[in-house]
Specification:
Layout lengths: L2 H11 L9 H15 L3 H7 L1 H8 L6 E3 H6 L10 H9 L6 E3 L3
Antiparallel strand pairs: 1-2
């Protein structure tokens, strides 16, 4: 991971913007790295969609669009058509956004 991805990851994990990553954020990152190492990213995203949603919703709009998903795709080792495939699983409105329903 290069400096750009490290800084983006830190910003995404620093949910309360206090300049620190707490245990919950650290634990989520470890789980993401383990899912990537064992090639189960799609399963991880499906089973832990709420924390992943909160992580990927970088602008706080309560939606995730393809641009946001692609910006963080490196975390899940996603490439090419993987983005649309996974996003389409959760796009119940057909507007290419996944909305927080919780």
């Amino acid at each position: 991971m290069g400096k750009k991805h490290i800084m983006l990851t830190f910003d995404m994990l620093d949910w309360d913007a206090d300049g620190e990553i707490g245990f919950e954020e650290f634990y989520l990152m470890v789980c993401i790295l383990l899912s990537s190492e064992h090639d189960v990213e799609e399963t991880f995203i499906s089973h832990h969609f709420l924390p992943v949603f909160e992580l990927l919703d970088m602008d706080g709009s309560k939606t995730i669009n393809l641009k946001e998903f692609k910006a963080a795709g490196f975390l899940f080792n996603l490439k090419g058509s993987d983005f649309k495939k996974i996003l389409n699983l959760f796009d119940i409105t057909g507007d290419e956004n996944y909305r927080d329903r919780f």
